[in-house]
């Protein structure tokens, strides 16, 4: 849905104020692809996993139980961090479009698709857009 002229002007003013306040940060945010961020996190998680393996092995060989347990915990946390980054990088769990009515997985006719019980919750941006639309419809 395209923005109205008023909304576009407001967005341009906000962008200009942001660039004026902190141009380095604004440029960094504008040109970065979020997938690169998650790829970097995935590489860091892999390094963390390897570090955990090393700690676990050193703990087993030197018979230091706390070091071995610490290595296992580092491995576990690195796996969880890497898995969450991999999911976000590949787009799993971020509100894919709901199926059309009558198709498998669609909400029953009397219930909204994004209800509290069955469907996924709308994203933050979708909720903000809906509030914006309601605010302008009230005027």
Automatic annotation (TrEMBL):
- Fetch the Pfam families from UniProt: DUF3040
InterPro entries listed in its UniProt record: DUF3040
Question: Keywords in UniProt for this one?
Answer: Membrane, Transmembrane, Transmembrane helix
Chain residue ranges for the region called Disordered: 92-139
Q: Does the keyword Transmembrane apply?
A: yes
Which positions make up the signal peptide?
Answer: none
Any stretches that span the bilayer, and where are they?
A: 42-58, 64-83
Question: Can you name the source organism?
Answer: Spongiactinospora rosea
Stretches of Basic and acidic residues bias are at: 124-139
Task: Specify residue ranges for compositional bias: Pro residues.
Answer: 98-111
Q: What is this protein called?
A: DUF3040 domain-containing protein
């Amino acid at each position: 849905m395209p923005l109205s002229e008023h909304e576009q002007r407001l967005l341009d003013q906000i962008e200009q104020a942001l660039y004026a306040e902190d141009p380095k940060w604004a440029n960094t945010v504008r040109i970065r692809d979020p997938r690169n961020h998650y790829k970097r996190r995935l590489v860091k998680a892999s390094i963390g996993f390897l570090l955990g393996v090393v700690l676990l092995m050193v703990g087993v060989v030197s018979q230091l139980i706390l070091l071995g347990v610490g290595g296992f915990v580092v491995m576990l946390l690195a796996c969880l961090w890497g898995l969450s980054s991999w999911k976000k990088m590949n787009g799993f769990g971020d509100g894919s479009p709901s199926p059309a009515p009558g198709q498998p997985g669609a909400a029953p006719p009397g219930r909204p698709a994004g209800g509290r019980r069955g469907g996924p919750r709308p994203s933050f941006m979708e909720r903000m857009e809906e509030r914006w639309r309601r605010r302008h419809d009230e005027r």
